[in-house]
Amino acid sequence: MKKGLVGVVAVLIALILAAVWRARRDAGAVYFTGFVEGEERVIRSEAAGRVLEVPFAEGAVVPPDAVVARLDESDIAAKIAAKQRELEVMRADIETQIRRIGLVESTWKTGVDARGAEVTQAASALTLAERTYAREAELARSGASTGQMTDEARARLDQARAALARAKDLLAQAEGEGRNIAVNQGQLAMLRGRAVLAEAQLAELEVARAKHQVRSPGVSTVVQTQFVWPGELAQPGTPVVAVLDPEDKYVQVYLPVAAMQDVRVGSRVEIELDSTPGRRIPGEISFIADQASFTPEKIETRGDRVGQVYRAKVRVLADAARLKPGTEGNVYLVPAAGGADPGEPRAGSR
After folding, report:
1. Structural domains in the chain?
2. Handedness of CA 164, 167, 169, 175 (dihedral sign)
3. How far apart, in Å, are the Cα atoms of 304 and each of 30, 257, 289, 323?
4. What is the DSSP letter of 270?
5. Is 192 left (phi over 0), alpha (psi -120 to 50) or beta?
6. pLDDT tens digit sequence for 12-70
7. Would you place residue 307 in the very low, low, confident or very high pLDDT band (cuts 50, 70, 90)?
8. Neighbouring residues of 254: CB distance < 8 A, sequence distance ≥ 6
9. For a FRET experiment, which of 28, 125, 233, 274 has its CA 20 to 30 Å from that of 178?
10. 44, 237 contact by CB (below 8 A)
């Protein structure tokens, strides 16, 4: 029953609007009744914490990107301090490891060069010992040398061979120290990776701390509603304040179906508010809804069709900051330059 009554009332309102528009059209002035609206922006908290301060009360002008609420950040600050100390230790370990690798590389190269020289020297000594032994053995066979001298030459040859083998072993050990450099370099890479991860974690914590300062949009606004007060607990998504951009205002009107032939997006209009009679503000139609309002559930007659209206928005082109949301007034359609007056009847329009 109530639903049917609401439908009947909606149809009557739409018919009255259409009749008023036709009367105004016939009188030569095409205008519609509208009211000023503004798009409020509800600023919400992105973090959890106790509210410490709400600097701007209702009605206060908020500068662009200003802090409209401060939350307790002691917990996140402690985490940031701990992570910074951890990162400092990692950086010190990295510097130590870099110096260690530099020292190992320099001593390793010096050691390899020295062991290589020893191998060369031992190889030369072995060559000399081999020649000496061969000569003593030949002299001993010819009777020009004694067996003792041959034995001594053989002993020196064996010593030279042993010295060369030992020099080669020492060279191999020195060259093997290069593997320690690779191990140290791997440890350095691991330390650097951990430092990069710690830096990323620190950056995340800094972002989280920044969210404890709730900021306004990047334009000057005015606080319309304050939702939280100091001492209360805010959660992610908790509304803090609702603000309104003084320049972001429009006039909402409803266009009868019969007016759609004269009105379109971009049509110039003049706004005359009840608060400032006789003073008109320029504007233009910025939006017309695609779907009609106050449409009967079942259209059976032409009267039902002309009872449809379309919601439209009028963009204010001057002095938008002086308009107060909720103020009512008239929106007059301005004839197109060089065209027919929209208020004059067209042939075949009736």
Report:
1. 2-71+219-333 (2.40.30.170), 75-209 (1.10.287.620)
2. negative
3. 22, 11, 19, 35
4. E
5. alpha
6. 655 565 555 555 544 556 788 888 988 889 999 999 999 999 999 999 999 999 999 99
7. low
8. 17, 32, 34, 293, 309, 310, 311, 312
9. 125
10. yes
Of 59, 38, 41, which Cα lies nearest the Cα of 216?
41
Angle at 306 between CA 303 and CA 311, to 5 degrees: 145
| Token digits of residue 121 | 């020297």
State which amino acid sits at residue 73. Answer: E
Distance separating alpha carbons of residues 205 and 87, to the nearest angstrom? 13
Residue 62 is encoded by which pair of tokens?
């908020």
Q: How far apart are CA 294 and CA 308, in angstroms?
A: 6
Say which residues have a Cβ less than 8 Å from residue 62's Cβ, sequence separation at least 6: 56, 68, 216, 220, 221, 222, 223, 243
Token pair belonging to 110: 């010096």
| Cβ 89 vs Cβ 162: under 8 Å | no
Give helix 178-210 / helix 74-142 axis angle, nearest 10°.
170
Taking the CB of residue 197, how many other CB atoms lie within 10 A of it?
12
Cα 184 from Cα 181, distance rounded (Å): 5
